[in-house]
Design goal:
alpha/beta; globular; disordered N terminus; 2 domains; 13 helices; Spore Coat Polysaccharide Biosynthesis Protein SpsA, Chain A; 10 strands; single chain; 10-stranded mixed beta sheet
Amino acid sequence: MDTRNLVGSEQNKYTKRLKGIRQGHFALENNPKVAIIVLHYGNPDDTLECLRSIIELQYENVFLVVLDNGTEPKYSILAYKNTINDLTQAKNWKFEDLSASLTGLSIKGEPRTFYLLRTEKNLLWAGGNNYCIKLIMPTNPDWIWLLNNDTAFSPETLNRLLEIARSRALFMMSPYLYDYSNHEKLQFPGGVFFAPWFPANSFLVRIDRILAGEKANYLSGAALLVKAEVFSKVGFFDENLFYWEETDLCIRARKHGLRIGTCKEAIVFHKMSVATDLTFSDDRKEQNFAKGLFVNFLRHKGPLFLYFLILFSVFLPIEFLRLILAPILELKKKVGFKKRLKLFQRFWEYRVVFPIRNYAELRKIAKEPL
């Protein structure tokens, strides 16, 4: 593969979207040490494009850990070692291949060094990141940047994130996420709970212009910048969860008085759910999503009767109304009655039946110490 085609001359497409955003040099006073973690699972081309974005970063005091997360041989990034070596050499990075060993690993954390690791099985998002974080903590990084392998960004992105985090005294920071295939489409600017005790995805308030920035109280894990001391103070990601694990960490951090926020001056483009689609069926994804949602609810917000109160008084009637109006909506949005009925059935199964049927298990997970 010609690494020049991974991003190459198209790099300006990432900076083009920055028009209208505050420009200028983002000076960093103390040159903090940053460790970047990328879990590879899925399309190697996606991972290679992400790696090129990282290696082309302007920021110097950074090292990279890439974990081949139990990937099948046909998808493994290990088959592209020569490509990675060429890419790192071209940008004056060092490449250390540690994938031959599964135990006794030691990472020095030297600046502009690429460390390649592997695991025999898929540890999923939380487990894979926890594994890497624990390996790099002895190198004393100031910040850890967790990146999904289906992301891409411009060279000044990390500088922007670090400077805004410093100026606002943040402990966790996320850039604005835009859709990779449509750079005008805002994917996620940060999240808020629209009510003090009720988190949910389909009810999520998208807060681009109204509640973004400092008022965001949970962040996406697709490009999550975290001060290393956060993990020492509040623990690691909950490996019982596959969705909402970064939300759980954000809530725990806030409970410890650690500020979090988003950065509209930094943009990351995200393809979304590439690895997830290879890992789980649609039904399993719905189950994992509901599991993470309700564990967070029970752990941080209170008993489920509050959830069902708002569900049956507000959102279930809204979903039912959408079902009834589906033939009318079809004229404008191409949403037919059969499709809307299927969506309503899934809503009922995973937002109503699931938490009742699995309450004991959800409660047990929510009570486990982290």
